[in-house]
Amino acid sequence: MRAVLTVALLLSLVSGVSAQSVLERSPNLHGVWSLPQGQAVFVFAHRFELIDGADELRNIPTLTVGAGLPLGLTVGLDYTSNSEISPGSSGANEVEYWLKRSFLPTSDLGFSALLGYNSVAESVDGALDARIGMGPLAVLGEVRAFSDAFGAGEGGAAATVGALLRLTPYLALTGDVGRMLNTDTLGTVWSTSVSVAIPGTPHSFSLQAANNGAATLHGVSREPEGALKSVRYGFTFTVPLGTASQWARIFRPPPVSQGAAADTNVVRVDMRQIAFAPAEIRIRRGQKVEWINSDPTVHTVTADDESWGSELIPEGGRYSRVFEEIGRFPYHCLPHPMMRGVVIVEE
Question: Using one digit for the tens of pLDDT, what is the confidence trace for 57-78?
Answer without folding.
Answer: 888 999 999 999 999 899 999 9
